[in-house]
Amino acid sequence: MSRPIVAQISASALHHNVGVVRARAPGCRIMAVVKADAYGHGAALCAPVLGEAGVDAFAVASLEEAQQLRALGLERPIVLLEGPFAAEEVDLALALQLILVVHDWRQLQWLEARAGAAAALFFLKVDSGMHRLGFDPSALTEIYARLRAFPAWRVLGLMSHLARPDTPADPYNQRQINAFAAAVEGADDRLEGQHSLVNSAAILALPEPHYTWVRPGLMLYGLSPFSGRDGADLGLQAVLSWRSKLIAIHDFTGGEWLGYGAAWQAAGPRRVGVVAAGYGDGYPRGAGTGTPVQVAGQPTVTLGRVSMDMLFVDLTDLRADLGDPVVLMGSAGPSVESLAGRLETIPYELSCRIQARVPRERVP
Known about the structure:
seven-stranded parallel β-sheet; 2 domains; six-stranded antiparallel barrel; alpha/beta
């Protein structure tokens, strides 16, 4: 590694957070969501650790993500959350022994045409009110009738997704819960009763019902899905510590302008550090002057505009030298949640922004 930037991933924090899922959803099977490169944390690193922690399955968004997990030698079930995107993908999905999520008639037709005699394994997704993916509940009777023509198929159960679990007091949650419960109540006996409804926010804030499978994503990485709350407030441990180093230091007498657009001017004597991190690494360009960072264990702020590969930090009142560590976000630095709040976005977006050129490193 030549450039001194790294995303450190704590194995012990991943183990701890799986334990929190178990405590909040006792008796449930855990479908660990590792799509989008484990929310930017590195699926190739996180998935094996989650496997060590005993999760029951992994969930991904594409065949490519599933292939990556299989290449790691992971044998646990893998769920393709959006199902196949083309008829040809059915064959590869079956070869990889994936669990499909079937959410529309076209996918069902692909299965009938290409996997009629195969032991296809899937969930049926029902639209309980989010109106993103899923069959209308009124269509389930016809679907059940069609399933009887394919005795080799295993349909684990129904799946749905809540739209507002991050605002748990919202009555829309109960409306969706009731709609899903009605669908479960009327489920055909061809289904194995392994239903799935809740994600991280619902696991943490909506005690009932969890059904057989829970689908934690963000909370596995120690991040909070709730505005104004950090993962630590929920008993979680931050998995990410995004770090770099000081690569240059400048002493200004006052009046000097800094960086692109000369967006910041030293009003008096100031000491400024340059950090090997920028928007090319996924650090948000909108994090201008005043964004918290940690330098050599001391809190300070960024100055001026973020460049593609570098950013500036204020060292005026700090003891800091070339090569000293800088924590951009996560453990031992500003929380991802606090930075998301500052930038008026969500933690999901910030962690998913971390680019592939930033190495992921497993730490205890």
